[in-house]
Amino acid sequence: MKPLKLISLLLCVGLLFISCDKTPADKGAAAPAGAVIGTNGLSDAERRKFYHLPEGSELYPYAWAKALISSQNGKPFLENLERFGLVADAKSAENPHGLPVGITVGKRSGVGAIEMIGVNCSACHVGQLSYQGRALRVDGAPNLFDITMFYTDLANSTKDTVKDPEKLWAFVKRYLADKEHPAETVPA
């Protein structure tokens, strides 16, 4: 891209942020306070569904993910998933766990009533730009989500937990302490 075109593009984006009203264009959407949501034809209900709709990629038990400590940073794996480039999202009926846009929790056939965590299309296709306390969210825009880093950290953290008896015992204690998953529902 030529320098003049790039400067023009950046200037337009900057002006868009400056001119944005601080109130959400869609009051029902789960955008952060003050975010402007680009209109693209989705209704509030469609948008909320799009952000967290399980689509079959749910591969890892949610209760385990809650109890897992990241090998990458030593903190709970589900803490600050925005570190992978995901867009933060508020708790709602469609997102009772308060997970970022694109992270799903659903029951998958073949594993019984266990909630599983996964990723849907919106993880990569909902973009948000923020500047000086103002945010512009665009459904369908590209995002900086690093899905490889997300699944690599999930796999490495699990492997490191299983290999180390102390980490494994701490994981089991966190898992059993979770009131949503009492000891009698621990999968075999």
List its salient traits:
188 residues; alpha+beta; three-stranded antiparallel sheet; globular; disordered N terminus
Q: Please, could you describe this protein's structure?
A:
The chain has 188 residues and is α+β, with helices and mostly antiparallel strands. The chain is built from 6 helices and 6 strands; from the N terminus they run αβαβαββαββαα. The protein has helices spanning 3-19, 44-52, 62-67, 122-125, 147-163, 165-177; strands at 35-37, 60-61, 103-107, 115-119, 126-131, 134-139. The model is unreliable at 3-29 and 183-188 (pLDDT under 50). The strands form 2 sheets. It has a 3-stranded mixed sheet. A 3-stranded antiparallel sheet has the order 2-4-3. α5 (147-163) crosses α6 (165-177).
End-to-end CA span: 56 Å
Radius of gyration: 19 Å
SS content category? alpha+beta
* Uncertain parts: 3-29, 183-188
Query: What does the average pLDDT come to?
Result: 81
Helix content: 25-40%
**Can you summarize the main beta sheet?**
3 strands, mixed
Question: In short, what is this structure?
Answer:
By secondary structure, the chain is of the alpha+beta class. It has helices spanning 3-19, 44-52, 62-67, 122-125, 147-163, 165-177, and strands at residues 35-37, 60-61, 103-107, 115-119, 126-131, 134-139. It is built from six helices and six strands; from the N terminus they run H-E-H-E-H-E-E-H-E-E-H-H.
Question: What's the arrangement of secondary structure elements?
Answer:
Blueprint: H1 3-19, E1 35-37, H2 44-52, E2 60-61, H3 62-67, E3 103-107, E4 115-119, H4 122-125, E5 126-131, E6 134-139, H5 147-163, H6 165-177
Parallel strand pairs: 1-6
Antiparallel strand pairs: 2-4, 3-4, 5-6
Helix pairs in contact: 5-6
